[in-house]
Amino acid sequence: MARVTLGERLQALTENEFLPPKRREFAASLLSYYETHKRLTAGRRVWIDRLEAMAEENKENQNSGDKGRGELCARIEKLQPRVEGLDQWATGYLESIHEQAKWTKLSEKQLGTLEKLEREYSDKAMEALKTWSVEYQTKHRDDFIIVARYYESAGYFTQVANNVLRDESFVPARGLFQKMHNKYSARILDETKRVPKYIPGASVTCRASAPRIARGALKKGGLVLRTDLPVTSAAKGAKKYQILPYGAAQPIEVEERYIKILKQRKKKG
Q1: CA gyration radius, the chain
Q2: 67-80 confidence digits (pLDDT tens)
Q3: What is the pLDDT of residues 226-236, one digit of tens each?
Q4: Which of 49, 96, 157, 215 gives the lowest tally of CB atoms within 10 Å of its CB?
C-alpha cells in the first residue's frame, strides 16, 4: 500500500465535512505552506494529527445523535435574533459559538457567557427593552443627541455616539445611557440650553484669557453671527459662538467665556 503523504492528508482535511469551516481554512493554510516549502515545521506538523482527531471525534458525535448538542444549538439560535442590531459583540459571539457547538463542546466559560446573554435578553428583559425604547424616543432622544455630539468630539463612547447621530432608530442600552449621563454631559446640556449672554448682532472682543488665535483674530473685535453651535467643552461658559472678525471674510468659533462686549471708543471733542 502506497504511503499517504502529508500533502494528501492536508488536502483531505481541507475537504473534510466533519471539520468546522475555520478549521478547514486552517488546514488549507498548512497545505499552502507545505506546497511552498516542501515540509512543515514541528509546530505545524502536530496540527495534522490534531485536526484528524478532531474530525474523527466530530464524526462520532454526529453519528451518535448527540441530543445535548442539538439543544445547545437551539438555545443559541433562539437568542441570535434578539441580540442582532442591539449588541454587535454579542451577535458575533453567538455566531462563533453556534458554529463551534455543531462540532465540539463549549467550555465552561463559554456556557457561562451564553447563560448571561440569555438572562440579559430573556422575555422579561425584552419587554423591558420595548418600554425603555418608547421612553428614550419620547423623553430623552433630543437631549442625548446633544450629549452624543459632545462625546464624538471628545473621543469617548464614539461608537454609541455615532449610532445616535446617524441612526434615528438606534436606542442605547439603559445602563449605557445612564453611564453617559454624568457631570460632564450635564454641563454640556446646561451650556447648550442656557440663554446666551450676547445676542446675534452684538460687537464683541476677546478677553485676555482667550486662546492666542482667537485674540489675534478679534484684535479689532467682531460681530456675533450665531449662538447655537454644538457645545464641545464641559466647562462653565463653554457655550460656543460664531463670530465674524471685523475686516475678515471668514467667521471663527469662540466660547462665551473668552469674549466680552466691545466698548466703542469715545470720539474726542
Answers
A1: 31
A2: 567 788 889 999 99
A3: 999 999 999 99
A4: 49
Determine the Cα–Cα distance for residues 182 and 62; give it in Å rounded to an integer: 53
Q: Locate 121 and state its grid cell.
A: 435578553
Own/partner pairs, 91-96, CB within 8 angstroms, 24+ separation: 93/117
- Is the pLDDT at 265 greater than 80? The verdict is no
Q: Which of 186, 163, 168, 175 lies closest to 234 in space, CA to CA?
A: 186
Cα 133 from Cα 138, distance rounded (Å): 9
Which residues neighbour 21 within 8 Å (Cβ) at sequence distance 6 or greater? 99
Quote the CA–CA distance of 216 and 222 in Å, as a whole number: 11
Output the pTM of the full model: 0.56
Between residues 179 and 63, the one the model is more confident about = 179
What's the CA gap between 51 and 66, in Å, rounded? 21
Q: What are the residue ranges of helices labelled H in 38-173?
A: 42-63, 67-83, 88-101, 108-120, 123-135, 141-154, 158-166
Q: 242: burial class by Cβ within 10 Å (0-12, 13-18, 19+)? A: middle
